[in-house]
Amino acid sequence: MSKLPAKIVKVDYLARVEGEGGLFIRVKDNEVKDVKFRIFEPPRFFEAFMRGRDYSEAPDITARICGICPVAYQMSSSQAMEDAFGVQVDGQLRTLRRLLYCGEWIESHALHVYMLHAPDFLGYEDAIQIASKYPEIVKRGLEIKKIGNELMTIVGGREIHPINPRVGGFHRTPLERELKPMIEKLKWALNASLETVKWTSTFNFPDFEYDYEFVSLRHPEEYPITGGRLVSNKGLDISVQDYEKHFQEIHFEHANALHSEHIGVGPYHVGPLARYSLNFDKLSSKTQKAAREAGLGKQCFNPFKSIIVRSVELAYACEESIRIIEQYKRPEKSFIEIKPKQGTGYGCTEAPRGILYHRYRLANDGTILEAKIVPPTSQNQKTIETDLYHFVKKNISLPEDKLTWQCEQAVRNYDPCISCATHFLKLEIEHE
Amino acid sequence: MKKKAKPKLAVWKFSSCDGCQLSILDCEDELLAVADAVHIANFPEASRAVVKGPYDISLVEGSITTPHDAERIHGIRRQSKLLISIGACATAGGIQALKNFCDVKEFISAVYASPEYIHTLSKSTPISDHVKVDFELRGCPVDKYQLVEVLNAFLNGRKPNTPHYSVCIECKRRGVVCRMVAHDQICLGPVTQAGCNALCPSYDRGCFGCFGPKETPNTSSIAEYWSKKGISNRDLIRTFRGINAYAKEFRLESESHE
Ligand code: SF4
Ligand code: SF4
Ligand code: SF4
User: Fold this and answer.
1) Can you give the pLDDT at residue A348?
2) Band of the pLDDT at B32, cuts 50, 70, 90?
3) CA-based Rg of chain B, rounded to a whole angstrom?
4) What are phi and psi of A23, to 5 degrees?
5) Would the CA dihedral through A186, A191, A194, A196 be positive or negative?
6) What is the tens place of the pLDDT at every residue in A225-253?
7) How do residues A172-201 score in pLDDT, each as one tens digit?
């Protein structure tokens, strides 16, 4: 039998992801020998230097882990602190947090769908190239993104590293008249997002599915964003407090980020695909209909179709924001007074890229003694490598440049955030 | 007449959260115009396409934290006509400079199960500690309008119009009621460089210094004022030791309360 030449797929610096990473895949005798999704973003040591800081500083400090999803960090850390102090933030304050988070979903999903992921499907190197041919499409994406940013600015003070959220609520709650003008804009964005669902559903998707364990939050009444229990399609159903009993992080030499696994089970998948597949019933009828018309079932196992699912979530977040603003009454107090006490607190919310878990151990006066943060990308890292392994195995005969590009795309399916994961990535494929 | 080639712009990343370069993509209204005015030659967060240097303008985000990056920045300097560092990470070491005050070896073993895989320098330092920087734009994140102003200025060969006075001036201009005087809150506004339009005070909280020290800040006088009001040394240290902990004036002030 004649041997196929060995190949190496190597991407030194993965583009259109947040942070620094690469890919390395080695194929020999028609077999995938090695797959490494490498993270070379330098470690930033948040968990270490948070020790000794005050609990109240956690939202401002942890926001700086990621410029694309700072709200996720602010919300998970605040929740963890509130959990430790036995404080419940509910009513309009909780809803306002959901609204701010919707702004982040809109901004982040629009950025990923239009600027980072769509170019792969259309064969362009970036959105600016798309704009030279289809300016209206790129402008639509930018306009949706802008509306998400405006929402974040009103509720959070600014779009990157909002300054308004605090443990217990907000420094200042928006006036009704500050929020109401957003309704008209969001209605436009909702329609534009529904158009986005239609547009992305026309792309060519590689025929690739995998039997993932999807993990996401699940809430009795809501599509999950700010809370719920942790569930999976393989029978997991636990409280956030029990997260570390079921998931652990492992450190490999090729990445400055930790890999998570479901203890005794293996890699798992977090993010839009997981949320959607576990919570389809909680979407609005309008977004369910849009998803069906785009050819999606109640669950989706093709990671390349995450772009459609993200667009569905984009529409959902616009709709939800409208609903929240329409019924918004400014709460009397902008935050709940905190009395620090010794203890441990847990928080988990749905960042645009998936569940973000925080745990803090606190001293009597609210000083942080220990911090643990598990971002979505480190949870997905092993799953990304698993995808690459199976994808390359299936497509081994593709020409090298095409295979390389599709491998990059397979990584971008996850909208990986390398800065988050190192508190992440690099592809090289080696055909020996 | 021959058409002038568009200036080549590169965006580089070191240790950071990507927030400052995201500010470029957040200029939704200006983005396509910027892409028209310059040739985006290297911007991996936004594009797969890479055009070789030299570059007319390099925007550098992030701080230097690894031996490899300490080397890499010199190569970037050599390829860049103008080098502009953006954000608190690039201009002051960033939030990750909080490690500069601690024992890094102990840090590594606190975060990573196999510390031997990690290569890091003991300090997180600004770009200007390593190479000549033509302009520093402050903020965590940088203000996108200031960023557009800086690019515009350099493309047109003029000096950027960014203020060096304090956040207090912005408060006065906006008519924001002072958090310190009226609410007895700690506010770093008097010693922090303007640029955010007094954002935090307008949201009912004190400034925490994300734009770094203003020109010639009197940090000891404000620290003394707070001490007299009963603020503890622990709180003084953590106030000055935030997003811009390693900026000289804030660092010295925090150290003087240890
Ligand atoms: S200065 Fe702030 S926003 Fe900019 S890269 Fe650093 S942490 Fe992110
Ligand atoms: S609130 Fe802060 S920044 Fe504003 S005037 Fe008072 S001290 Fe200055
Ligand atoms: S007020 Fe201070 S902390 Fe707030 S955004 Fe402005 S410079 Fe940053």
Assistant:
1) 98
2) confident
3) 20
4) -130, 145
5) negative
6) 999 999 999 999 999 999 999 998 876 65
7) 999 999 999 999 999 999 999 999 999 999
Q: Which residue has the tokens 């990304």?
A: A384
Query: Which of A15, A408, A419 lies nearest to residue B47, judging by beta carbons?
Result: A15
Q: What's the CA angle centered on A186, arms B31 and A336, to 5 degrees?
A: 105
Interatomic CA distance for residues A379 and A40, integer angstroms = 17
Nearest residue to A71 via CA among A149, A161, A172: A161
Residue B51, chain A, CB below 8 Å: the answer is no
Minimal C-alpha gap between A126 and chain B (Å): 5
Distance A333 CA to ligand 2 centre (A): 23
Determine whether B72 is exposed, middle or buried from the number of CB atoms within 10 Å of its CB (0-12, 13-18, 19+): middle
What mean pLDDT value characterizes chain A?
A: 90
pLDDT at B234: 92
In chain B, % helix, strand, coil (3-state, to 5) comes to 45, 15, 40
The residue in chain A having the minimum alpha-carbon distance to the alpha carbon of residue B93 is A44
Contact between A396 and A387 under an 8 Å Cβ cutoff? The reply is no
Q: Does B199 touch chain A (CB under 8 A)?
A: yes
Q: What Rg value do the Cα atoms of chain A yield, rounded?
A: 21
Query: Does ligand 1 lie within 6 Å of residue B95's CB atom?
Result: yes
B205 reaches A (C-beta below 8 A): yes
- Three-state DSSP at A252 gives coil
> Ligand nearest B226 Cα, by number?
2
Contact residues on chain B for A158, CB-CB shorter than 8 A: 141, 196, 199
pLDDT at B1: 46
Q: What does the pLDDT read at residue B116?
A: 56
Rounded CA separation A66/A72 (Å): 9
Q: For the segment B52-85, what is each residue's pLDDT rounded down to a tens digit?
A: 989 999 999 999 998 899 999 999 999 999 999 9
pLDDT above 90 covers what percent of chain B? 76
Q: What separation in angstroms does the CA of A73 have from each of A67, A343, B67, B72, B149? A: 10, 20, 29, 30, 30
φ, ψ of residue A35 in degrees (nearest 5): -130, 120
